[in-house]
Amino acid sequence: MTYTVAELLGDPELATISLTPGVGEQREITWAHVCELADPWNWLGDGALVMTTGLGIPEGEDQQVEYVDRAHAAGIAAVSIGEKMSAPPLSQGMLARAHELGFPVLETALHKPFVVLAQAVSYANLQSQQQRIAIAAQLYESLTEHLHDHSLGPLLERFGTLLGGSIRL
Q1: Distance from CA of residue 138 to its chain's centroid?
Q2: pTM surpassing 0.70?
């Protein structure tokens, strides 16, 4: 019920590829935000997809490695850089460090506005929230149906079905 880097990459409408293929694809994206600052980790954190034209990406290899280190340490889910925009060439050191950390570095096609990615993340997370609310309502309904039933077996079975597992006492 969470939106992942793999799901973003798997949607051809988002025109985004991985520059670190297979890396961090199960990371959860909870928010997407454009940030052109050199220090997005001071403003964005856990689960954020940082979308940038590249203005904040440093030029030197050591600085690019530090950029990845700090973004990863802040819990940022991934960075997507706009294709053929303002980013300096990405160093091999930066991409190697991203591989080591399991930190996805993505590239979004020039023709794709970042707002489309932000909308996809927002929509996916809204759907996930709605699913959780629906399950909570069904759990409550099951509980009220079994309120006077002193046998827990059917209630636990129903809860297990709703939660996708089994519950045992």
Answers
A1: 27
A2: yes
Per-residue model confidence as pLDDT tens digits over 49-107: 999 999 999 999 999 999 999 999 999 999 999 999 999 999 999 999 999 999 999 99
> In terms of Cα–Cα distance, which of 41, 58, 108 is closest to 81?
108
Interacting residues of 41 by C-beta distance below 8 A, sequence separation 6+:
70, 71, 73, 74, 76
8 A C-beta contact, residue 99 and residue 72: no
Q: Judging by DSSP bridges, how do beta strands 78-82 and 16-18 pair with one another?
A: unpaired
Please work out, in degrees rounded to the nearest 5, the angle formed at the alpha carbon of residue 130 by the alpha carbons of 76 and 52.
25
- Token reading at 152: 């827990």
The edge-to-edge listing of strands for the beta sheet with 105-108 is 16-18, 105-108, 78-82, 48-52, 31-34
80 burial via Cβ count (<10 Å: 0-12, 13-18, 19+): buried
Neighbour count for residue 29 (Cβ, 10 Å)? 23
Residue 148 CB neighbours (<10 A): 6
Q: Which residues contact 100 (CB under 8 A, 6 or more apart)?
A: none
